Amino acid sequence: MSAGVGSGHNSAAAAVHQACAARTDIAEVQVLDVLQVSSVLYRALLGKGYFVLVEGLPWLVEWGYDISNPPFRRRGPIDPWTRVNASPVISAIKRFRPTAIVSTHFLPAQLLASLLLRGVVDAKTAVVTTDYDFQGLWLSGAFHMIFVAREEGWVELTALGLPPDRVMATGIPISKPVGPAPVRDRNKPPMLLISAGATGGDYAFSVVRQTMHMRSEFTATVVCGNNDVLRQRIEKLVATAGDRYRVLGFTTEMPQLLGRADLFVGKPGGLSASECMAAGLPMVLVNPIPGQEVRNGDYLMEQGAAVRCNSPATIGWKIDEVLREPGRLQRMQEAARRTGRPDAAADVLSGLLGGPSRPLVVTRAAQRTVLAASEQRFVATDLTGPSSLVRLVDRAAGSTVALLPAEELSDLQKRYATPDSGLVLRRGQAPLLLGWEERRLLRALLRGDTALPVRAVGPSAPFRLPPG
Fold first, then answer.
1. Counting beta carbons within 10 angstroms of the beta carbon of residue 378, is it exposed (0 to 12), middle (13 to 18) or buried (19 or more)?
2. Which residues on adjacent β-strands are paired with residue 245?
3. In the beta sheet, which residues pair with residue 360?
4. What is the SS3 assignment for 221?
5. Selection from 332, 309, 343, 325 nearest residue 261 by Cα
6. In a 10 Å sphere around its CB, with 0-12 CB exposed, 13-18 middle and 19+ buried, how is residue 91 labelled?
7. Residue 81 predicted with pLDDT over 80
8. What does the alpha-carbon distance between residue 398 and residue 65 come to, in Å, rounded to a whole number?
9. Residue ranges per domain, the chain?
10. Phi and psi of 201, rounded to 5°?
11. Where are the alpha helices (DSSP H) in 307-405?
């Protein structure tokens, strides 16, 4: 399940779909863009509206990213308008009756949390992030696994209190090229791959114009996406440059182009960057979207796999600097190869299908605790006393099934404690006497069972390095 806000989320879903074909234990796969089955108005506001803001009010996009970044800032049921538009999605899930559901956008992830807590869905669910930095909107109250792009995301989420057995750093899922990988010809001038993105951003015109002033030898392939007007403008611009430039519209050859290029010039979207890193292709970053793309760029520059150009007037000079310094391009290419995670999609499937069968439920009280701690610049694993977080662990499977404050555990112990100081969660004989949160917890965890023996572990495990 994805949402077509830009092309990256759907590309990640397609990569997971492709990885399913390599497994013998998957009988059938369905890919669903939740916006495509929503109302036209809802689809336009979320899909097109976002890019209108990116072009016209980028500061507002950055503000929205920052204001929604704190963990569990968005809690509770999805808003009524989203719920109405989710009806076709819920119907599709009920018809297909999936064993597992992978979400590559936070909208379906939030919806699935609601369905798990209501007992509507009985499937393993995965949240797969599509940028290098973790963003708080992806956190929900119920899921089976969260897959993040890098180890720092794993450290962040476990420091917030999420159990380590429910978070994996796999990288961002990307599709694998069909056929043999292209080989770069070291005897030819470096090839630049200049991308305007799937929608064809006009910034590519100024990029190409500045490269025409470069002193270094190079060739360039310019991909204009679906913007035919941009393609025609660039073709006219480079008409006097001989065969140095090749100008394309939308193309299905991107994997081959990534494999043959020596340097990528474009925006640091999560999927674009992941594809470049997997191909060992360093990046010159231009025109990043405030928020997630700026942070993606920060990470790539930390790794030595990218440089950023903040002014259109210096793009040509910046690329020249990379190409003219002896060994610099080769060092950046090696850094890109180290950063790449080409097997991320397969790792997501392995982690989900081989992972816990019961979901993790983060109670409302635990969500409030995590948010309050982060707003005070604490991490939840530093908390002590009644507000400290406690994990409920499935005794038979050994997996964490709930995260709750110690004071909330006391209420459960009054009803479900056993003589050996354990807990056995049971379906209530008088469910109306149970609190709403308790009913949600039992509904999500028990599923077809009548009882679940658990043990309490807490406070949450302190910070430690990610496995491996």
1. middle
2. 220
3. 143
4. strand
5. 332
6. exposed
7. no
8. 36
9. 8-174+349-457, 191-339
10. -70, 135
11. 315-324, 328-339, 344-353, 364-375
Say which residue the tokens 């390095």 belong to: 465
**Lowest-confidence pick of 122-131, 181-190, 250-259:** 181-190
CA proximity to 191, closest of 219, 215, 214, 224:
219
N residues, the chain: 468
Walk across the sheet containing 451-457 and list its strands: 142-143, 360-362, 400-405, 389-394, 451-457, 423-426
Nearest CA among 245, 203, 256, 244 for reference residue 225: 203
The residue that leads in pLDDT, 104 or 4, is: 104
Please tell me whether the overall predicted TM-score, pTM, comes out greater than 0.70 for this model. yes
- Tokens of residue 33, six digits: 């863009």
Q: Which two tokens stand for residue 300?
A: 């790539």
Helix/strand/coil for 424: strand
389-394 and 400-405 beta bridge pairing: antiparallel
Considering only the top CATH level, what class is 191-339?
alpha beta
β-bridge mates for residue 229, sequence order: none
